[in-house]
From TrEMBL, chains A, B:
GO terms for molecular function: isomerase activity. InterPro entries: IolE/XylAMocC-like, Xyl_isomerase-like_sf, Xyl_isomerase-like_TIM-brl. It comes from Aquibacillus salsiterrae. It comes from the Bacteria. This is Sugar phosphate isomerase/epimerase. The lineage of its organism: Bacteria, Bacillati, Bacillota, Bacilli, Bacillales.
Length: 272, 272
C-alpha cells in the first residue's frame, strides 16, 4: 500500500496495550494516525462519557469497538447476562461514535461445539434489533481455529458469512482479520462471497516460530501472510474503509508506544 | 469405547518419546497394546533391518509409519530431494510391515501458500506409483491450521479429501486426527465424504490452556474434543482399523513410559 494510503490506517488499541486510552489518542495525533479502534477494557479507566469526549475532542475517527460476543454459556440466565453485556457494548459503540461492534463470539462452555454455535446464532438474533436501533452494525469476526476452545466457535469466514447472510448488511456483516483467516484454502472464495458485507479489515502477521498462542502476532511483513493479496481481495469485495493494525504481542507491548507506532506506519506502508 | 475394544489401540510412538523403539516395543508387550505406529527418527538408532526384526519378533502389528511428506521447497532440486526421501520412507514402511505411510505435507518455503499446495499435489502424484509398487498406501493427514506456517499447508479434511479423490483408495487416502480437525464446522460432512478412504484415526485431546503450539496435546478426556462422536462418524465412514494414540506433550514425555501407557489404556477405554 502506498504511503498516501495511511488515511486508512487505524490503531487497534490492543497493539499499544501499554498505553491507556488518553495516551493512545495522543499517540495517534502525534503520528497522524486518523483512526482508532477502542477496546472496552480501556474505556473503564476513564468512564464512557469521558472516553467519548476525549475521542471527539481529538478529531480521531473510531473504526470499531472491540468487542461484543461471548454468547454461549451453560445456563439460560448466564446467556441472558451475556446478551445484556452485549446491549451495553452496543450503547458504548454508539456513544463512542462508531457504527461497528466487533463480535468475538465465544467458546463452548463444555464439549458441545454444535450447541455453542447455535447459541451464537441465537445471541446475534436477539442482539440485532437493539443494535439496529442504536445505528450499530455487528461484525462477526471468525477467529483462528486455534482459539476454538477458549475464544470463539466461529472459526472460518465461511461460517461467519453463513451467519451474516440472514441479515441486511446494515445489520450484520463480517470482519476479516488476516491472522485468523490466512491459512484457509477457501479464503478467496469466501471473501468474494462476503462482497458488500465486510465491516472491517485487520492486519498483523503470522511469525515463526509463533511466540505464544494468544500473544502470538507479528508486525506486517515479519511473517508468512500474503497481506497485500488479501487486502486486494477485500477491496474487490467492496471494502474501502479503515484498516486496523491489531497486534497482540508481549514484546511489542514492552516497547515504548511511540516506537511501535513509528514501525506500524512504516510496515503498513510497505506491506499492507 | 469399551474395554474389549483395546484390540484397536495403537501406540503412536511420539506419545512415549522418552522411549526408544526397543523400549516402546517392550512397553506395548507388557501392557498388551497390540499395535504400534513407528516414527522414522526412532528407527535410526537401531537401523531399519534391526528395527523391522525387533517388531516382527514382538508380534506387534504396525499401524503406520510416520511420516512422509514435506514436499514443498524453493528449488526443483530441493523438491527432488524431498521426493527421494519419500521413496525411502515408502521402502521403510514396507520393510516394517505396514501398508500405510502418513503424509505431513509440509509448509511453504515462502509466503505463497497456493504454490506450496500445488507442490504437495505434484509430490504425491510422483510418489504414488512407487508406493503402489511397494504395497504402501499414502495417508494425507490434514494438520491443524495453526501448523499452516511451519508443518503443513493441508489444513482441512476437505482439502485432504479433494487431493485423495484423484486416486484409488488403495493408493491414497486420508488420516483423521481429532486434534487437527475437531474445530472444523464441516467436519462430519467431510468424514462422510471420506467414506472408504480413511487410512488412519488418531486420538488425543485439546486441553486448555494449550501448553505449547507443538507439544500442546492432552490425554483423551482431559480436553474439549468430542472424541467418541468423531470415532463413531469415522466408523460409519467404514474405518474399523487401529486407533493411534498420538500425544505430543512435554509433561507426558517427562513421566515414566509405563505410567503413560497405563493411563493411555484407561483413558482410551473411557473416552475413545
Amino acid at each position: 500500500m502506498s504511503q498516501g494510503a495511511l488515511d486508512r490506517l487505524s490503531l487497534n488499541q490492543i497493539t499499544t496495550e501499554q498505553w491507556n486510552l488518553k495516551e493512545a489518542i495522543e499517540g495517534c495525533i502525534r503520528h497522524e494516525v486518523p483512526w482508532i479502534s477502542v477496546w472496552r477494557h480501556k474505556i473503564e479507566e476513564f468512564g464512557l462519557a469521558e472516553s467519548a469526549r476525549m475521542i471527539k475532542d481529538s478529531g480521531l475517527k473510531v473504526s470499531s469497538l472491540c468487542r461484543g460476543g461471548m454468547f454461549p454459556a451453560a445456563t439460560a440466565s448466564e446467556r441472558q447476562g451475556r446478551l445484556e453485556d452485549n446491549f451495553r457494548a452496543v450503547e458504548e459503540a454508539a456513544e463512542l461514535g462508531t457504527d461497528t461492534l466487533v463480535l468475538v463470539c465465544g467458546p463452548a462452555p463444555d464439549r458441545d461445539i454444535d450447541q455453542a454455535r447455535k447459541w451464537v446464532e441465537e445471541g446475534i438474533e436477539k442482539l440485532v434489533p437493539f443494535a439496529e436501533q442504536h445505528g450499530v452494525k455487528l461484525g462477526i469476526e471468525p477467529l483462528h481455529p486455534m482459539y476454538a476452545g477458549d475464544r470463539s466457535v466461529v472459526n472460518t469466514l465461511g461460517q461467519a458469512n453463513q451467519m451474516a447472510e440472514k441479515y441486511n448488511p446494515s445489520q450484520v456483516g463480517v470482519v476479516v482479520d488476516v491472522f485468523h483467516v490466512w491459512w484457509d484454502p477457501d479464503l478467496y472464495n469466501q471473501i468474494t462471497r462476503a462482497t458488500g458485507k465486510i465491516l472491517g479489515f485487520h492486519v498483523s502477521d503470522w511469525i515463526l516460530p509463533v511466540p505464544d498462542i494468544f500473544k502470538g502476532r507479528g508486525m506486517m511483513g515479519d511473517g508468512v501472510i500474503e497481506i497485500n493479496r488479501i487486502r486486494q481481495a477485500v477491496e474487490r469485495a467492496g471494502y474501502l474503509g479503515p484498516i486496523e493494525v491489531e497486534i497482540i504481542n508481549q514484546s511489542i507491548w514492552d516497547r515504548p508506544g511511540d516506537d511501535v507506532l513509528t514501525e506500524v506506519k512504516q510496515k503498513f506502508a510497505e506491506h499492507v
